[in-house]
Amino acid sequence: MEFRKQKQRHNQSDTKGNSRRKKTVLPLFSAALILGAVVVVALSYAISNHAISITAAAQNLPAKKVLIVTTSHNILGTSGYPTGVWLPEMTHPFSALQNAGFNITVASVKGGNVPIDPYSIPSNPQGTNRDDPITEKFLHTPADVAIINHTVPISTIDPKEYSAVVFPGGNGATYDFPWDKNVNRIAAAIYEQGGIVAAVCHGPAALLNATLPNGQYLIKGMKVTGFSNEEEAISEILIGKKHVVPFFLENELPKRGAIYEKVYVHEPLVIVSGNGRLITGQNPESATNVGEKVVEILKGGEAT
Fold first, then answer.
1. What's the N-to-C CA distance of the chain in angstroms?
2. What is the pLDDT of residues 96-149, one digit of tens each?
């Protein structure tokens, strides 16, 4: 009897103890669940807010700015022949960049009206650029024409504002690009800050004297291209005069340590060097490809 009573009392005691433990554990478990839920909500809120802030920041980022710099020289030496920019070498990269949504500034060595080689105008029956819908469209768009009639002087340009610069050619570029301190300053500064430097046809004349802070030529050790000696010879035949430009790029670029490459006359060639930061095109036929390559790399494409 006593054993049964003790066992009964013991069972009653265990039951009461278990009841007390259950009463204690349940509130603790509930508190833990509530605390966990609060933490999850807080984390979710923080992550959500962080994602929103990143999205908002990305939406507020300004579009990348690209600079196009043209020659201001309008006469071929003492020949009296008009020259200037070879228009499609400016309009084709401009079109590619504009279609991609980039903010474009067109500058020239002296500012103001850009001299245009008349033989590059599609409507000129004596010209060699008669089938060019891109340039035709540019010339029939008043806002675009106003840009080349009122270019910014390159002396006023702050290179820190730009992600890339494009130097179109034209024979005029061989007369002012190499010796203009602001052309050299812009090319070197944009390259040094991690931007893209691109040039077409005679445009690589802008690279001849561009030097980096360490005194080294920007193009030293780089593969580049530009208007070839054979293409220069054809131009001389068409013009009817020799030595209409002060130098040939095929001869001058290697003097600065560059590795010059070319293809057959008036076949397109684009060379990308410097980990995607230096882009050169051989001739007018390469202008569209140069513009598209600048767009591709600025948008994070492969530098090939």
1. 97
2. 999 999 999 999 999 999 999 999 999 999 999 999 999 999 999 999 999 999
What pLDDT does residue 63 have? 61
Distance of CA 76 to the CA centre of its chain: 31
CATH of domain 65-298: 3.40.50.880
Residues 6+ apart with CB under 8 A from 100: 295, 298, 299
Q: How many CB atoms lie within 10 A of CB 10?
A: 10
Q: Give the residue extent of every domain in the chain.
A: 1-61, 65-298
Give the predicted TM-score (pTM) of the model. Answer: 0.80
Place of tokens 């090939």: 304
Return the pLDDT at 304. Answer: 53
Of 22-26, 87-91, 207-211, the one with minimum mean pLDDT is 22-26
Integer Cα distance of 289 and 280 in angstroms = 10
Residue 91's pLDDT is 98
What's the CA gap between 294 and 273, in Å, rounded? 12
Across the chain, which distance is largest between two alpha carbons, in Å? 135
Q: Which of 212, 217, 227, 122 is nearest to 173 (CA)?
A: 227
3-state helix, strand, coil in the chain (%, to 5): 50, 15, 35
Strand partners for 234: none
